[in-house]
């Protein structure tokens, strides 16, 4: 029996929540995953997991074993990474999660520059507006555009952007330009979904945050699609300035309700705190700070 392998499988079951999810990740059958856990419990002489057809939970012994096992596996990973780093070669795969617009528009050029500097590194980037739980272990770095952070992670500010409101000149000529946020109820709205503020648009009113529920005609989780719709005169959009920048430069969109603009949102690179960081991670974070400062 490979106890380290069974320990890894057990930790992934706790983190992913089901045997089938771990089986899919490891490209094994659910039966094989069950066998590994049975072997581990038999060798320890305790039950680690309460299992029913509908739920999975840790026993008290399982919780204690998970906490110690997780630390041991992280220590082993740190040992391997620190030893490999003695060869003075930066290599390996970095798994990144990024918001759809920021990742597509800004991260690809940054990654291209980084890979020229460190050609033995590979980068896997997933684009999703919903931030991942880094503790699950699917990503090394999560890039976030936010004003709230998980206190359990390290967060490095790499840039910032403003959340503003925009419309096309043609739309404003036809429908009129709202002078106050209360007038938005008379306009067509284009709503950005999958954001921390849900169905609401956020505004700064005399230094205080005010939420307004948008009466949208089109909603999407893709800022570029919403900006294109706004440029075609379909309505008003509220979006991070970084998503709208090309449309502002071309004159297809203009900012409105400027007096209600919120303070800038920070863009963070976040990652789990640990005792040792592999060179691939530290070089990439340092590179992002340097790149976006320019």
Notes on the protein architecture:
The protein has 294 residues and is of the alpha/beta class. It has three domains: 3-85, Arc Repressor Mutant, subunit A; 92-161 and 266-293, D-Maltodextrin-Binding Protein, domain 2 (3-Layer(aba) Sandwich); 163-262, Periplasmic binding protein-like II (D-Maltodextrin-Binding Protein, domain 2, 3-Layer(aba) Sandwich), CATH 3.40.190. The chain has helices at 3-16, 19-26, 30-44, 60-85, 100-117, 169-175, 223-231, 241-250, 279-293; strands spanning 49-51, 56-58, 92-98, 121-127, 141-146, 153-161, 163-167, 189-192, 200-205, 208-213, 216-220, 236-240, 254-256, 265-272. Strands 4-3-5-14-6 form a five-stranded mixed β-sheet, with helices on one face. Helix 5 (100-117) links the parallel strand 3 and strand 4.
